[in-house]
Amino acid sequence: MSGSTRGAPGPDAGRPAPEGPLGWTFLTNHGHVLVAVSRDPELRQRDISQAVGITQGAVQRILDDLEAGGYVRRQRVGRRNRYEVIADRPLRHPLEQPRTVADLLEAVEA
Known about the structure:
Structural class: alpha+beta
Distance between the termini: 33 Å
Strand content: 5-15%
Number of domains: 1
Oligomer: single chain
CATH class: Mainly Alpha
CATH topology: Arc Repressor Mutant, subunit A
Number of strands: 2
């Protein structure tokens, strides 16, 4: 039996995603934080926390991970941070390569 997921669209193709509480999403919290700072590089961690639905501590750890991995640069501007997404970095999982952060962000924004 083939493991292919391509083929004819399902019966729900083209319909909006269901509303209500989410049990799971296609992107990880790391992906959500990356999307949030790409949309607004001057967001405060509190705002990112509210947008993604995670604690401020989790946002801090994720931003530390993204910075350590070379996916985000953090710059101090006065009392705030400004984030720069490094869009030409490759995605991390072998199934996602050779795609880049820019490809991911473009797909999410499309």
